Please model this.
Amino acid sequence: GAGVSQTPSNKVTEKGKYVELRCDPISGHTALYWYRQSLGQGPEFLIYFQGTGAADDSGLPNDRFFAVRPEGSVSTLKIQRTERGDSAVYLCASSRSGLAVDTQYFGPGTRLTVL
Amino acid sequence: GNSVTQMEGPVTLSEEAFLTINCTYTATGYPSLFWYVQYPGEGLQLLLKATKADDKGSNKGFEATYRKETTSFHLEKGSVQVSDSAVYFCALSVTGTASKLTFGTGTRLQVTL
Model:
């Protein structure tokens, strides 16, 4: 596609439920990142994929968060037993090769609200 | 660790005024530096970047120079327009750290007629 796409754009769920957020990166980009942005803050890193493997998951806040990228393209961020503190905008970005000098292209985000 | 500090907003300017948004950083390693912009209702997009010391990034009339000696990457524009109203984020990434971006908290710019 022309850019990074994310679905859904908005997700409202109840505390304790399970949610999945999807990211479709720019075609051909091997690096994929997930970030989380709380109101009034800058995005915070969650996890980085190089191809199919999670090369760095040091930003995941706890074991309720998990992400996959089984075919090296689309990625899904999974959150179990959601909590109100998980409410935020979840951003996905991709870059050509994952080098520090590469530009990361961001999707529009999924706004998650946990009631 | 890596961190980015930006001047707090909001910054309110009249059209055609000069803009400076300060950004300083700390990094373990040699960073690449970025300014991202988030227009109302839109996603984050790259405004400019610089990947080595003394490089100047520029785009849409905005400029920022990578100053290693002062660990700074201040954003400037000589004459702002109403359409520049947005939130601006300074960020860095370091080779060997998964190239993840570390962002500042963002500075909201409001330009009025």
The longest strand of chain A covers residues 88-95. The mean pLDDT of chain A is 94. The two ends of chain A are 33 Å apart (CA to CA). The interface with chain B takes residues 31, 33, 35, 40-45, 48, 55-56, 59, 91, 93, 95, 98-109 of chain A (CB under 8 Å).
